[in-house]
Structures are given as C-alpha cells and as structure tokens.
Specification:
The chain is an alpha+beta fold and 494 residues long. The protein contains 18 helices and 15 strands. Helix 1 packs across helix 2 and helix 5 crosses helix 6. The relative contact order is 0.09.
C-alpha cells in the first residue's frame, strides 16, 4: 500500500485530481487493484491525516466471456460456416463441413440459415449471398473495448448466448485533502521511553485509537480457589443476614489492632517477631481523643469492674503503624462506630480479608493469610448463643461434629477454640477461635453494659487446601503459584 500511496500522491501533485482510479497504471505498467487502492486511500484520508479525499464510483461494465472473446478474435460460428463454403452453385456437403469445422458447423448452421446467408441444395450447403457482415463479432468487439453497447437488446441477447455478462466495478475519484503533502508522515502508535526522554511526545503525530476494533478475544476469567471458597463463605454470611465490613486497608495503627482490644502493650504478639512494623510513615496520630483516654485508663488503672493491667500505658506504642495482624482490628473500629450511634441497634458483621504475621514461612505457614471474621452484637447474648451459632454456621459449610475447648484471648472472656473431626485425617482439627468480647473492650467504646458481643475468626486457607487437595500453602498463595493450576480448576463453587 505504501507504493500505491506514493502513486496517488504524485499524480495528485501533478494533475490535481484523479477522476477515476480505474485508469491508474502502476510504475511497472499494471492495472491497479482497486481493493488494494482502497486501503491506501483510507489510510491517507483518516480523520487526523486528511491528505486526500475520495469518492466511490460504482459502474456497470459488460465483460466478454471466454467464448465471447474467442468470437471477437476469430468471428462467429455462423460466419465460419459461411467462410468455409466455397463460392459457386455446388457448395459443400454437410458431412464435409462437419469434418472441417467440427462442433462449430453444428452451432453455426442454424444461425447462418436464419441470417439467410446459406441455402440447402440436396445434401449440400450453398452460399446465398456474395458477402456477409458478422454483426455478432462487431457487437462483441464494441462491448470489449467500451464495456457496454448502445443497444440494450444486443447486450441481453448476447448475454443469453453466454458471450458476455454484466459486472459491477468499483473505482474511486480522488482529490487533494486539506493536509495534502507529498511525504507521508509516519504516525506513532505508542508513547515510548525514548519519546519521553527526548520530549518528542509533545509534538509527535499519534495514530488515533480505533475504539470500534474488536480486539483480541479474552480467554475468560479464572477464579482462584481461595476466592471461590471466600465467595462460598460470603454467601453463607449474607444468607444469615450479615453485613460485610470494610476491610480495604492493610495498614492499621497499633491502637486499633491491639490497644482497643485490651491487648496490653507488653503482649508478646506486639513484638517485631510477630508483627510487621512500618518504617515510613511509622506512626499515626489521629484517634478519637476521648475514647483514647478511656482506653489508656482501662489498661493502666482499670474500670467497668476491672482492675486493668496496672502498667504505664504509652501513646507512642499505640501510634505505631503495622500491617494488621487480624481483622478484629476492623471489628473493633466498627463496634466503636456502632457505640457512637444515638440508639443501639443489634448488628451482624462479617469480613474476609488478608492479615499479616511475621512468621517463618514453611509448607503450612505464610507471612500472610486470609481471615474469616464474624461479629454479632445484641443485648443479652450468651455463650449458648455463640455455641449454637457456630453449629449452624459450620453446618452450612458441611462441617458437622464440633467441639469447643476453653482458650485465652486478651479481648474475649470466655474464649473457645473450635475443633471439628476430620474424617480423612482421623483426628480433631482446629477450625477457629471465638469468644465474647470483654467489658474492658466494649464499655470504653461507649456501648451499654447490657450489650454482649460474640465473635469468631478462622482462616480461609485451611478449608480451601482441604477442599482442593493442596498440600503446600505456597501453591495457593504468593509468587510460586502456578497460573495453570488456577486456570485448570473447575469454575464452579463447591
Ligand atoms: N482475632 C482472632 C485471631 O486472630 C480470632 C478471633 C476473633 C477470636 C474474634 C475471638 C474473637 O485468631
């Protein structure tokens, strides 16, 4: 097309217009392929280029068939019959004519009789006139050189005889566009590193995006096994009337992650061995002032029927930014907000998101994992409600036999670890951790002492690994995950 573009531009430069491109001849003396030319014209005339303008010319052209060409070259069958008959009374025997002309004798005879060029004399054919005019040949020659004939009847008659046919021919008339020039400026497709460096991007002529292009068909999405199980858990929560908590931040202050949860500042979990601390920015200074004061008090001197821990609580420790170690930080924030409402209303919250712990990475541990967290707040809830709820919740996941074991969390009392009997492993495995939030956590928030909050947390990875038969957690999460494993996983949820 580049050659064709140059051809069009040079002719336009010399002559101003090209009335009909069907007359174009290439430098090596060939007719121009109009379809290829259209490509060239299009790229010279696109919206931001406008080097040329063109219009389509649609013409009907009559074209000779092979047989029509043959007749235009050598004469019609009937003329050949006439020419083969010798001058004189005797003429030629029909059988002899056949021998000389073959098929042509058969085809031409009838027409020659009809034209009154020949007559029969016994078994012989004799000339009936001195000379003939081969009109068929003349008509075909006209059609061949002009593409049509002044007499429509002739055209249709010859078409019936399969000597010519009508074709549609498309060509173009071309004129100079507003940005006509002899040189074609190369259009840039993308901004390159070099363009940015040289500043060329400011003046470069960019190819327009074609937003109508179909593009490459996408291969379809693939759900990560973890995301499938997460979706399953979400549906269970929604089914049971839970609202999803906004967990869309990985960085938390120690205040919300630990202090608000009545976790003392010397607690080993707050050590750098267990928690990732941020360097830049390292601290957060915005906290609800009154609430912060009450948290400080409950830690250092107690209150709400508690003696507290009796240590010197320091704001500097609470200000430290960390990667959240559990989503309970978000639960705490949500409960504080609930406590600020004029009137208490019972709530059911859940979240499923990432948490981070400074662990030694091995086949079953990563420094990050997903936590499934649930919180129910209402007046008069009991431990029985927690146990009953756990049974219903795990039942919906297909986990039947549950056992509860007393445990310890700084923020719950009582606390229970939840175990389920694993048929495959033949033993009881820990499924999660739960409890009732302590008054030392809830009352400084401003919640009524009658309000009880039951809560629990479990990992998303373990049920997923069991479900999908994955033995190494690094095959599930992190940079070692093999994408084909994900693509080959069934799309449906369990
Ligand atoms: N935050 C706890 C953990 O990280 C789970 C939990 C949540 C326990 C709520 C009790 C209540 O293991």
């Amino acid at each position: 097309t580049e050659e064709l573009q140059t051809l069009v531009l040079t002719i336009l430069d010399a002559k101003g217009t090209i009335p009909n491109t069907k007359d174009l001849i290439t430098s090596d003396n060939k007719e121009v392929d109009q379809l290829a030319l259209l490509g060239a014209l299009k790229s010279l005339s696109i919206a931001d280029k406008e080097m040329v303008k063109y219009e389509t010319i649609e013409e009907e052209v009559w074209v000779l068939t092979n047989e029509g060409n043959e007749i235009a070259d050598k004469g019609s069958h009937e003329a050949k019959v006439f020419d083969t008959i010798p001058v004189g009374e005797e003429g030629i025997a029909i059988s002899a004519l056949r021998e000389i002309l073959g098929e042509t004798a058969k085809i031409g005879q009838g027409k020659a009789f009809k034209n009154k060029w020949v007559i029969k004399n016994g078994d012989n054919l004799v000339r009936a006139v001195d000379s003939i005019i081969d009109q068929t040949r003349i008509d075909l020659e006209v059609i061949r050189s002009t593409g049509t004939h002044s007499d429509q009847k002739v055209l249709f008659e010859l078409r019936k005889r399969k000597l010519c046919d009508k074709h549609k021919v498309i060509s173009y008339s071309v004129s100079k566009g507003p940005k006509f020039s002899l040189t074609i400026e190369k259009q840039a497709r993308d901004v390159t590193f070099e363009m940015l460096q040289s500043g060329e991007w400011k003046t470069a002529n960019f190819k327009k995006y074609n937003f109508d292009a179909l593009g490459i068909p996408p291969s379809g999405g693939h759900l990560h096994p973890l995301m499938k199980v997460r979706e399953e858990f979400r549906q269970i929560f929604f089914e049971m009337g839970f609202e999803e908590m906004p967990t869309n931040k990985f960085v938390e202050s120690s205040f919300w992650n630990f202090d608000s949860l009545f976790q003392p500042q010397q607690h080993p979990a707050r050590d750098a061995h267990d928690t990732f601390f941020l360097k830049d920015p390292a601290i957060c200074t915005q906290f609800p002032t009154e609430y912060l004061k009450r948290v400080k008090e409950v830690h250092s001197i107690g209150g709400y029927g508690s003696t507290g821990y009796g240590y010197d609580w320091k704001i500097e420790e609470a200000q430290k930014l960390i990667l959240r170690t559990h989503t309970t930080a978000v639960s705490s924030f949500m409960l504080y907000n609930l406590a600020q409402q004029k009137e208490f209303k019972p709530v059911k919250y859940f979240s499923i998101d990432r948490v981070f712990r400074n662990e030694t990475v091995d086949a079953t541990h990563l420094a990050e994992f997903h936590q499934v967290e649930g919180v129910i707040a209402d007046k008069g809830l009991t431990l029985g409600d927690l146990i009953g709820f756990m049974n219903t919740f795990f039942n919906k996941m297909g986990v039947k036999n549950l056992r509860f074991k007393p445990a310890y969390n700084p923020y719950t009392e009582p606390s229970m670890e939840i175990f389920s009997y694993h048929q495959g492993l033949g033993k009881w495995v820990e499924m999660g951790n739960s409890g009732m939030f302590r008054p030392e956590m809830l009352e400084p928030m401003g919640l009524d002492p009658d309000v009880r909050v039951i809560a629990w947390g479990l990992g998303l990875e373990r049920p997923t690994m069991i479900k999908y038969g994955i033995n190494n957690i690094r095959e599930l999460l992190g940079h070692k995950v093999n994408l084909t494993t994900i693509q080959n996983n069934p799309i449906c949820l369990f």
